[in-house]
Amino acid sequence: MSETEAAEPDAESPRSAAEREITRQEAVRADAVPLLDPREGIPPVVVDATALERVVRSFAAGYGPVAVDAERASGYRYGQRAYLVQLRRQGSGTALIDPIACPDLSRLDAVLADAEMVLHAANQDLPCLAEVGLRPRRLFDTELAGRLLGHPKVGLGSMVENVLGFVLEKGHSAADWSTRPLPEDWLRYAALDVELLIELRDALHAELERAGKLEWALEEFAAVLSTPPKAPRPDPWRRTSGVHRVRSRRQLAIVREVWLARDRLARERDLSPGRVLPDSAIVQLALESPRTPAELLALPTMRGRGARRHQSAWLRAVTRAQGLPDSALPPPSQPGDGPPPTHRWAERDPQAAKRLSAARTVVAALADEHTMPAENLLQPDSVRRLAWSPPAEVSAATVGGALRALGARDWQVRLVATPLAKALLRLEAKGDR
Description:
By secondary structure, the protein is α/β, with parallel strands linked by helices. The protein has helices at about 15-30, 50-60, 105-110, 120-130, 140-150, 155-165, 185-195, 195-210, 215-225, 250-270, 275, 280-290, 295, 305-310, 310-320, 345-350, 350-370, 375, 380-390, 395-405, 410-430; strands at about 35, 45, 65-70, 85-90, 95, 115-120, 140, 165.
């Protein structure tokens, strides 16, 4: 039987299995117990080499996986550096490390080289952990495991509540973790984030085994670790919120120059760029093109203290853009390396639009069959690229090869290559390729 054919009549359908899981989780939530304090209390924050060495020895003597988390100051500070690192291990307890006071954790990394590290949404924390010298060799990502298992909510609090029956304290995830000293209730929250992470890992590991998805998960975890850091985006200023309102190349140049001026100031002051000047102000500067301080300060978006404080920098940026020759103005859009936006496919290549519709239908059906989000079965970008430029000779082998070249894992190729090839061949037989 193919992956898309119906199950036997007496087999439980994927949707009914998902509904039963939701019912079970609702029952767990009804009996959930608030988790108010770490088992061993709040550990002191490690802020010097002597205390860090004690942690290194303690975690070297522990056993089993290591729960790891990091707190950043997104929205407050420039960049995504860690301002607190939390770890927990059987036999070692919990450690809270200040990576500003102790910026080199390579000794700790060395003693944990053979340990599996357990993170929730690992791709968010791995870059800032690498900056301080923590680089997992083996990974278990509890959020990714939850997605593969079809859990309807995969935030850490929801997972701990639905799987383990405990309610985690909420409220400090968006705090300014660069604050010193860190308040006690924030430290309690941070310690609780790793308090049950190993237990959650164990429960999800068993659930993955029962569902026949453990090998899939291990492939996904390995892929997370092997994915190189993202290269800086070309023209990052084009991601300014509201830039779609800007029409002319001259106005785009103003967005670019003001964005670059803001970025320099934010880096120098170690502030989130949005706290120096909001995106809405950049867009309004581009639309209004003020030429004098009075015109600039009259703009509604320039009333904030940060915006007014650096008014001369913004005016210089606007003036600089206004004086550029036409040849130096940015193009209206950035050339892409992939297919055009899908809303244009029907006009530009109707056959490609049909292939995309067929491919999306196949992936959605398979994802439903295996109780997981479609994007975790196959990345939407891979679906688009395959539909836009399919192999010259369509077969399960050539489709699988194309998907592997796009980064699909072996387990994904095994599930989707044959059904996708059949769908494309059906269109080809109809003359729709």
